[in-house]
Design goal:
The protein is built from 19 helices and two strands. With 424 residues, it is mainly alpha-helical. A hairpin with a 4-residue loop joins strand 1 and strand 2.
């Protein structure tokens, strides 16, 4: 009986270990790369690409599935212009195939982000190929993002049931062992002890017994330390990071209508982006360029009229009734961090979506990017500097040429006689 008990205990441990690994593996698959890639694909790629058909660019499903060199695809997505400049044969062929129309550079995407997008595209394309009728009937992409909730709960039920069975069988084995020892006369003292008058029961006896189990105590302390450490790390890492912040503004301004459906350029309203440090919030008079005659019956437009003291009947302004509009700031950097919009928009030629995300699809604007130092540094490491047509970089290039030739470099060559050096 004792050997049978040991064998069963070893078997039960093996069952629990296998069930635990199965559950962890199942959970990891449920949080697979394809699910993360779906969000990135919708925010970065849907403007120019579809999975199953050509839009501005080619259909990504067959294109990415046929291309097996993921390292090359990662370089192409992050900075296709660098590949073209390096005379990469694949890159030049694609560039010429699409009439030398350059693809947007996604320097902010890490290698892991690109891998997630590729996994999502390939998974979605395989699903479409396997069940094209189902995809056509639903009118969307039937992407497989992991097992269903029913399967996960079923696996949890199997694990719980295995625990219950093991506990019951352990109790049965313990009972059989007691009967066997009692039959051999080895539990006489224990039986006599049972005949002693009832004494006060120690309600903490089970906890005290568990506390003496060194392996259990070590396991609990280890799990607690890991959980507390993980929570502390995540809390400190995300301090003052407001990604996803979406306040309610005093006027509901739908960016998906103005920047998306109406194709209004971002800088029509945020005119400071190309010439100053701040992008600037547009004056309500900019709104009146259209809304003197467009959607004049809308309650949201009447909020603009009230703030300006404008009477739509007489089409006159009353300055005594005007009041400032209290917009709520969404994107905020620390005071020690300097960011200049014109350097990125005019000099570097970046699109607003690089930092602000798919603004043309947002009903209400929210902070899309984390705006952390790591996020900025990753973008700076992957973004090539375009020196053509830029007077500053051309001057720096001339200075470097002088240094290579061994010629002296004066302060004037470094911009030392520009007015702004002293009169700022």
């Amino acid at each position: 009986m004792r050997s049978f008990s040991l064998i069963f205990k070893q078997f039960s441990r093996s069952v629990l270990l296998i069930a635990g690994f199965a559950f962890l593996g199942f959970s990891a698959y449920a949080q697979g790369d394809a699910a993360k890639g779906e969000a990135l694909f919708k925010s970065k790629c849907t403007t120019c690409h579809k999975i199953d058909s050509k839009l501005i660019g080619p259909a990504l499903g067959p294109t990415i599935t046929d291309e097996t060199d993921d390292k090359w695809l990662t370089k192409w997505i992050q900075n296709n212009q660098a590949l073209i400049a390096a005379k990469d044969q694949k890159a030049v062929t694609i560039y010429n195939q699409y009439n030398q129309a350059g693809m947007q550079v996604f320097g902010e995407l890490s290698d892991g982000d690109v891998a997630n997008i590729l996994a999502y595209v390939r998974t979605s394309w395989k699903t479409m190929q396997a069940a094209p009728k189902a995809t056509a009937a639903t009118g969307g992409t039937a992407a497989e993002t992991g097992p269903s909730d029913l399967m996960i709960f079923a696996l949890l039920g199997v694990i719980v049931l295995a625990f219950i069975i093991i506990l019951v069988l352990n109790r049965v084995i313990a009972t059989l062992e007691r009967l066997l020892l009692k039959g051999k006369g080895l539990l006489i003292e224990e039986e006599g002890a049972l005949e002693v008058p009832a004494v006060e029961v120690d309600r903490l006896a089970t906890l005290k017994k568990l506390a003496k189990n060194k392996k259990l105590v070590f396991f609990v302390l280890l799990c607690g330390t890991l959980a507390l450490g993980s929570w502390t790390w995540v809390t400190m890492w995300t301090t003052n990071v407001h990604q996803g912040y979406q306040p309610v503004q005093p006027i509901k301004f739908p960016h998906d209508l103005h920047a998306g459906a109406m194709k209004i350029d971002c800088q029509y309203c945020h005119s400071g982006a190309y010439k100053s440090k701040n992008a600037s919030i547009p004056s309500l008079n900019v709104c009146m360029n259209c809304h003197k005659v467009v959607k004049t019956e809308s309650p949201e437009i009447h909020k603009i009229y009230d703030a300006l003291g404008y009477d739509p009947q007489t089409q006159k302004y009353d300055s005594t009734k005007s009041r400032p509009m209290q917009w709520i700031r969404i994107h905020t950097l620390p005071d020690f961090a300097y960011f200049n919009h014109s350097q990125h928009v005019k000099v570097a030629g970046l699109r607003c979506q690089t930092c602000h995300g798919p603004i043309e699809t947002m009903k209400e604007v929210y902070q899309y990017s984390p705006l952390t130092m790591k996020w900025c540094i990753q973008c700076h490491k992957r973004t090539n500097v375009n020196m053509k047509g830029n007077a500053y970089y051309e001057k720096m290039q001339a200075v470097h040429d002088l240094i290579k030739q061994g010629k002296p470099v004066t302060e004037a060559a470094m911009g030392g006689i520009e007015c702004g050096k002293c009169h700022y």
